[in-house]
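[step 3/7] inverse_fold.run input=structure_tokens len=261
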């Protein structure tokens, strides 16, 4: 039986925990770590998971074979080294946090055989990784989000952009994935995932549009390589958090099934 622990029980973490109450042969949720154990206990009890352990974030690796980070950059930084040093596998939902500092990027390079990034709200990353075995000439992500998904983004406020006042599709960012993640740390994990699968965060180009007509988070990828051209697009329905796709948690569950087989 493969033991799974979740670090962070927000929208994504809760959805993964709920998904694990279904038919997941060979997998068991063994632990959940959050900064509010009492709230976590109440959420788990409501899911019928009252017997799950509640260790500290720092000790979560002692309670599982696979740890899923669902709590953002701060949680990833706190758990990554202890989990990896304990020999565990680490699933990273906040892929952008791996680009946040040189030491986190170095950690990814050193342990990439045990750090796994679910596809999240996009797809085709297996094909991008295959292309990267040869020569990728260019990689581009174009993301369109409804205004609600970008409310409260500090960088947009600094630029004088209020997403709720946007009345037509508006390009609010164009640059490399590294800068995109720096300006939108909670909104463009897909850019980090694409860049880490392919040609890196400085060569991967990103456009972000605020689109009042968008019904969900829309992502279009185009990759040019010596093995061919890939074009992929998806309109992902938002979760309870409008900035997060419902596919994010489901991609983690699908990856867990493959890893535990």
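[step 3/7] decode complete -> sequence:
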């Amino acid at each position: 039986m493969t033991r799974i622990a979740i670090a962070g029980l927000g929208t994504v973490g809760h959805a993964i925990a709920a998904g694990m109450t279904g038919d997941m042969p060979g997998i068991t949720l063994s632990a959940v770590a959050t900064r509010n154990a009492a709230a976590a206990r109440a959420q788990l009890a409501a899911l019928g998971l009252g017997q799950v352990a509640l260790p500290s974030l720092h000790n979560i690796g002692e309670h599982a074979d696979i740890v899923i980070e669902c709590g953002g950059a701060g949680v990833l930084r706190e758990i990554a080294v202890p989990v990896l040093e304990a020999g565990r596998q680490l699933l990273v939902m906040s892929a952008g946090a791996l680009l946040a500092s040189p030491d986190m990027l170095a950690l990814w390079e050193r342990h990439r055989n045990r750090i796994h990034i679910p596809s999240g709200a996009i797809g085709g990353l297996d094909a991008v990784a295959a292309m990267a075995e040869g020569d990728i000439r260019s990689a581009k992500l174009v993301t369109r989000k409804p205004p609600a998904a970008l409310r409260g983004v500090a960088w947009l406020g600094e630029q004088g952009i209020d997403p709720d006042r946007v009345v037509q599709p508006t390009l609010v960012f164009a640059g490399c994935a590294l800068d995109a993640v720096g300006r939108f740390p909670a909104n463009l994990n897909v850019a980090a995932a694409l860049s880490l699968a392919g040609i890196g965060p400085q060569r991967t180009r990103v456009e972000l549009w605020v689109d009042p007509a968008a019904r969900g988070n829309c992502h279009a990828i185009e990759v040019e390589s010596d093995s061919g051209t890939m074009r992929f697009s998806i309109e992902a329905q938002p979760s309870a958090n409008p900035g997060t796709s419902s596919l994010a948690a489901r991609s983690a569950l699908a990856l867990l099934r493959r890893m535990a087989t």
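[step 4/7] annotate
The chain has a mean pLDDT of 94.
The domain at 2-120+246-259 is CATH 3.40.50.720 (Rossmann fold).
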